[in-house]
Amino acid sequence: MSDTEKKTEKEEKMTLDDAARVRVLSPGMMVLKRFLQNRLAIVGIVIIVCMFLFAFLGGVLVPYSQSEVFYTTEVMLKDYAGTTVIDQYQFVNAPDKELPKDIYSKTIMAATKKDYAFESRSGGYYGISPVGDEVYIVYSLTPENGLFWKQQEFKDAADAGKNIFEKDGELYLFNAFTERPDFYKAEEIAVGSMRSFTAYSSDTRLSYEFCREALIAGANNAGSFKADGTEYQLNAGDSGELIYINGEEYAFVSPMNFNPVVSGTYLSPAYKMTALEAIEAGEESFTYPDNDGTEVTYILQNKNGQYLIRRNQETKVIDKYASPSKEHIFGTDGNGMDLLTRLMYGGRISLLIGFVVIAIEVTIGTILGGIAGFFGGWIDNLLMRLVDVVYCIPSMPLYLILGSIMDWYQAPATARIYLLCVVMAVIGWVGIARIVRGQILSLREQEFMIAAEATGISVRRRIFKHLIPNVVPQLIVYASMGLGEVILAEATLSYLGLGIKYPAASWGSIINAVNDSYVMTNYLFVWVPAGFFILLTVLAFNFIGDGLRDAFDPRMKR
Amino acid sequence: MKKFILKRLLISVVLLFFVSLIIYAIMRCMPTSFVENQARALSTRPGAKSYQEWVAQLNAQYGLDVGVLQGYLRWASKAVRLDFGDSWYWNQPILEKFKNVIWYSFALGLATFILEIIIAVPLGIAAARKQYSLTDYTVTVIALIGISLPSFFFATILKYIFSIKLGWFDLSGTVSRMHQSMTPMQQFWDIAKHMVLPIITITVVSIGSLMRYVRANMLEVLNSDYIRTARAKGLSENKVINHHAFRNTLIPIVTLLGGSLPGLFSGAMITEQLFQIPGIGYTSYVCVMQGDIPFVMFYLVFLAALTLLGNLIADILYAAVDPRVRVG
Predict the structure, then answer these.
(1) Closest in B14, B131, B148 to A484, CB measured
(2) A244 with A269, same domain?
(3) Who's near B24: CB < 8 A, 6+ residues apart?
(4) Which end of chain B is more exposed for a tag (fewer CB within 10 A), N or C?
(5) B271 shares contact with chain A (CB less than 8 Å)
């Protein structure tokens, strides 16, 4: 009340040539002036402009794409190698010789039964001859009918504890240390032992003769042996034998088998020795320099006689839920995608859907509402009943159903967006139709329309030039508020996982991550920004709509 | 008056017919994965019929084997006798399931309805009394924030603060773990406690529109001639507001509130789903996800009927409360 009093006082004080009095604003300018005076509306405009810049310009400027997955390196304890105590005979074949498949079991049987000749499952006779502790030379045999048990060579061999002898340039093997064993003609094909060989340099191939002689020498505690015309020195240690050639390390024989997890990894004898020493000492870890000379710690794990060697290794993993950092200002989401980028692209979709839906709604609503209001009568009745019917269809459950239908048909992401727009518009136009009809009904009876009719202007011109412009203010108000509603509905749908789908982003679908309560509790940065973006945008549209309503309708102002 | 109500009722029935026809047509587009899954399960039983036969039989059983119009008439002829069939997912008559769950939704709806009125009406009037004052701006901003808040986001924030950080309420559900061993009084409070967060969510999200409605109507009333006359008479401001303005502003408000009474039964789909309240909204949400066509069909028609009923009540109230409105 006091306001109006003040105003009238002011007006009384003005003179006729007062500048404020002379300046007359057009109706449009008046609206604009009133609108700009509304602080909330200005705040809304600023927010919307910022959102548009953020979504459309930001999406261009940001160096990442919306579905770019980021990786990070993480130090993880990974299996490096496995070692097993060799409990089966390992065979080194003589050149161009083959062993039967059941040689492993047959050898063990023969060694325990001390019956050194046997027949393999695939036929063919084989025999072994012990040359040291758990070292056997394997022969391929042919049964020999000759009786050798009175021969001197046999007796000498038996006395020396060998089941093999040479006679007339042929090798003969007998199956047991008895008076009258069976005799076979023998041909050497392999050497078997419970030890494995590692050469010092990865490109050295160890020859059969070398292996054979080394094993024999090792089993007999000999300090040196000769193979392939070269003299080797042998040094037996706790964890295996080291073989030197002219004082230089050449090969390593160990009772353990090493298998690198990544095939092709070369495990050097020195490394194996370190590992074996650690195992012998019962330690849980050991260090060994890698190629660059840095000490790497390896962890030993005993699993039923097998040792697992593990080490910390840098591994490439998807950068999930990374906290905000310089590279990712809002962090990353559960798929390792940059949240800032997704917020920008999601903003595009949210804003775009809002505008598209409202545009369709306004078009349908204005046309149908305009027709109903202008023509009246049965057309009006029919159209308004149609409006009533559509108004009664519950929107949210319907969106959910449509979402699940689209899920069922596995609609692609873009098709979903378009379909969503159309469906929301088809449900939402009734409000606009009602407003337009009501407004036109009241305008139709006003004097200016009678005057327009009297001047004989065509119906189309009367509708579009005289009626529609008078409806526009209310339309704009309704549309700006409706924009907010549409954005909210889309966000809700996407939140439920039925709207915009991965890989396309939307603000709602970003918040979808809170369905995982671990994310909700621990990764606030994933869902809070998206929520505030929705809130701010919808709020801004409501501010603008509110300000426009006040600006268009000064009656509300006291 | 009787004639008016009768006419409106008839129109509503016709509208409901068309609405349910449209809904039925949409429902028929729904993926029938439920039928197919069930047929698959049944056909794997020992000695069972083939999958194809089961699909055919189930489709016939559920009335999916005929055209949309024929199927609708079949459905409608049963529905008018309140026979909505059995829910596929819950495996019991729809009305029985409905009776079990509707009271949760009604309790939620009623509590929010009362809270809304208690908060929104006084605030709206206060805002209108001092237009463009700090109070008005505050109320406007609060109302608009409420309208703009995505319910799922607000609910999540409430859960985060009150359930996770403060531990005052459970995250979801209607009863706590020890519910069975409580006395009836404790059980009531237990359920009430679980309803607090959902009620806050729905209230905050929906309070804005009522607040703005009250404010707008109060402003209109305050701008009318009879208020000027009342002031001119020299009445005190309180008397002007409480006797002349408030009573007149009640007309549209009562109409609006009366019209929203049926809405108390409609359930809040999103909020109930967020808090796992087994009301009609949550039940239907599950049914939509599971492809339970009969139940969703029932729920949608139920909602449409509620909307029509609300409009009807609003119209009648409008005519009854405001003597200026002549019923024709």
Answers:
(1) B148
(2) no
(3) B68, B71, B72, B75, B297
(4) C
(5) no
CA distance A482 to A504: 24
Per the domain annotation, does A2 fall within a domain? no
Q: Residue holding tokens 């927010």?
A: A47
What are the chain A neighbours of B16 within 8 Å (beta carbons)?
Answer: 392
B288 contact residues in A (CB cutoff 8 A): 397, 400-401, 404
Q: Which residue of A has its CA nearest to B22?
A: A393
- Chain B residue with minimal CA distance to A544? B144
- Residue B191 in contact with partner chain A when CB distance is under 8 A: no
- Using alpha carbons, list the distances in angstroms from residue A445 to A254, A318, A379, A450, B288: 108, 68, 18, 7, 48
Write out chain B residues lying below 8 Å of A495, CB-based.
150, 152
Cβ within 8 Å, pair B303-A511: no
Question: Taking the CB of residue B193, how many other CB atoms lie within 10 A of it?
Answer: 15
Peptide bond preceding A503: is omega within 30 degrees of 0, i.e. cis? yes
Does the predicted interface ipTM exceed a cut of 0.95?
A: no
> Which residue, B279, B270, B294, is CA-closest to B101?
B279
The answer to whether A307 and A271 are in contact (CB under 8 A) is no
What would the DSSP string read from start to end of B65-126?
SS-HHHHHHHHHHHHTTT---B-TTT-SBHHHHHHHHHHHHHHHHHHHHHHHHHHHHHHHHH
Residues A234 and A353 in one domain: no
Mean pLDDT of A219-237: 77
Alpha carbon of B183: minimum distance to chain A alpha carbons (Å): 32
Measured CA distances, B64 to A403, B56, B70, B80, B264 (Å): 21, 9, 10, 19, 33
User: Cβ distance B301 to B95 under 8 Å?
Assistant: no
Segments of A62-207 assigned E as strands: 71-85, 90-93, 117-119, 125-132, 135-143, 164-167, 170-174, 183-193, 196-199
Residue A226 sits in the same domain as residue A292: no
Q: Cα angle at B28 between B23 and B30, to 5 degrees?
A: 100
φ/ψ (deg, to 5) at B324: -75, -25
pLDDT category at A1 given cuts 50, 70, 90 is very low
Clarify whether residues A101 and A145 are in a common domain. yes
Contact in structure between A420 and A359 (CB atoms under 8 Å): no
Query: In this structure, are A362 and A228 located in the same domain?
Result: no
Kindly state whether residues A467 and A539 are assigned to the same domain: yes
For residues A82 and A60, give the distance between their C-alpha atoms in angstroms, rounded to a whole number.
51
Cβ–Cβ of A1/B231 closer than 8 Å? yes
- Kindly tell me the burial class for residue A169, based on how many C-beta atoms sit within 10 Å of its own C-beta (0-12, 13-18, 19 or more): exposed
Strand partners of residue A309: A81, A300
Q: Are residues A426 and A477 in the same domain?
A: yes
**Least CB-CB distance to A393: which of B11, B23, B145?**
B23
The CA–CA distances, whole Å, from A551 to A183, A511, B286, B318 equal: 119, 36, 45, 29
C-beta of residue A310 within 8 angstroms of C-beta of residue A298: yes
Token pair 């009623």 is found at B110
Contact at CB, A535 and B171, closer than 8 angstroms: no
Count how many domains chain A has. Answer: 4
Tell me which of A254, A271, A302 is where a domain ends. Answer: A254
With beta carbons less than 8 A apart as the criterion, state whether B297 and A394 touch: no
Residue A358 confidence (pLDDT): 93
Which pTM value belongs to this model? 0.73
Question: Which has more confidence, B106 or A464?
Answer: B106
- Residues A76-102: what's their mean pLDDT? 78
Structure confidence by residue, pLDDT tens digits, A478-495: 888 889 889 998 888 888
Domain range for residue A187?
Answer: 96-192
Whether residue A248 is found in the same domain as residue A111: no
Residues near A527 by beta carbon (within 8 Å), at least 6 away in sequence: A510, A511, A513, A514, A519, A520, B153, B156
Task: Note whether B31 contacts A: Cβ–Cβ < 8 A.
Answer: yes
